Amino acid sequence: MTTPNATVPAEGAQKPLQEHFDATIARDQRIEPRDWMPEGYRRTLVRQIAQHAHSEIIGMQPEGEWITRAPSLRRKAILFAKVQDEAGHGLYLYSAAETLGVDRADLTQRLIEGRQKYSSIFNYPTLSFADVGVIGWFVDGAAICNQVPLCRSSYGPYARAMVRICKEESFHQRQGYELLMTMMRGTEAQREMVQDAVDRWWWPSLMMFGPPDGDSPNSAASMAWKIKRHSNDELRRRFVDMTVPQADKLGVTLPDPELRWNPERGRHDFGTPDWSELQRVISGDGPCNSERMERRRSAHEEGAWVREAATAHAAKQAARAEEGAVA
Amino acid sequence: MSTTGDSTTRAEWPLYEVFVRGKRGLNHVHVGSLHAADDRMALTHARDLYTRRNEGVSIWVVRSEHITASTRDEKDPFFSPSADKVYRHPTFYDIPEDVPHI
């Protein structure tokens, strides 16, 4: 059901509702669309789910650029399926956002007017076909680290969308890694392409987890509400620990001189991403921000006639059916 | 080309809820929603969006506005009549343990 609860209870009536909400969260049960929820919870979810949906939709672009240039029919079919999945993920998430009483067309509008954000990672260019592989391995790998805990997020529709998405992300990560393994078995030039792509995507991938915990204003509330289950830094560490042995197997070097195993902590130590770069890219000054936004805007505007024609066709068919019924 | 916020970008398609039967023998289950201009488009979009990997053998779509729902909270008195009739449950009845098959 997607009808939001529009009634705002009076101040006095709100206390038992708040208590019921808090108890539901404390019992690790899910909040569902028609339940009462604090305005801050709703607002946080709308922001996070919309941003997530926008990221999936914008995320079609960097890899989509390589569909026509894929080196074989097999790789083209795989890439097609992957980019189609990104569209699907965006739509699952818009569907979840709409259960909170926002309108999908309005969210799209907010994206193309730059009033809502998407993941900084998609503002980097895809310079060679190896980038397709590295995006699957790093970017989708990072997305898996982020999204698996979100399958237990306290908001039911979001958690359920994440379950569907996570099932499909595994294909994305594996096709990327397999692509890279194939290139690493190829020529010296191909191995250099892979290493070059790894060098360019490593730090932006670490930035995908967001600013460090001390600098992440929304994290505490999100964790108290169990929207998020782990902090940005914790997820980043998990990603590094997961990726290092994969890099070894692949035979590439991760571009971080400080990266080493710390036997005492049982984890890897690693360098600090350039947070000023993240800030620049988030605030619109990354290598491809304007290109991505322009592409999204033109796709929306150039598709307007199709949406209008379908609406007109549906209205005509409905009117004919009604005439038929009257006659 | 149309600019932001005018009537063309607002030519809205209605919202549909999507239900999928995963395989024979199972009920249709709600999986999410989508927008479509009409019922037929809703069905094909639902197929493309929710069954890309053999997740279904049958799909229902229904305009969201046509769904009538119970009140907003599970803890509502609407459901209380089902909680106060313990004699509807088999465990309400004491039967000696040595009586077979009951």
From TrEMBL, chain A:
InterPro entries: Aromatic_CoA_ox/epox, Ferritin-like, Ferritin-like_SF, PaaA, PaaA_PaaC. GO terms for cellular component: cytosol. Transmembrane segments: none annotated. Pfam families: PaaA_PaaC (PF05138). One of its GO terms (biological process) is phenylacetate catabolic process. It comes from the Bacteria. One of its GO terms (molecular function) is phenylacetyl-CoA 1,2-epoxidase activity. SUPFAM superfamilies: Ferritin-like. PANTHER family: 1,2-PHENYLACETYL-COA EPOXIDASE, SUBUNIT A (PTHR30458:SF2), PHENYLACETIC ACID DEGRADATION PROTEIN PAA (PTHR30458). NCBIfam families: PA_CoA_Oxy1. This is Ring-1,2-phenylacetyl-CoA epoxidase subunit PaaA. It comes from Actinacidiphila glaucinigra. The lineage of its organism: Bacteria, Bacillati, Actinomycetota, Actinomycetes, Kitasatosporales.
UniProtKB/TrEMBL annotation, chain B:
InterPro entries: PaaB, PaaB_sf. It holds the Pfam family PaaB. NCBIfam families: PA_CoA_Oxy2. This is Ring-1,2-phenylacetyl-CoA epoxidase subunit PaaB. It comes from Actinacidiphila glaucinigra.
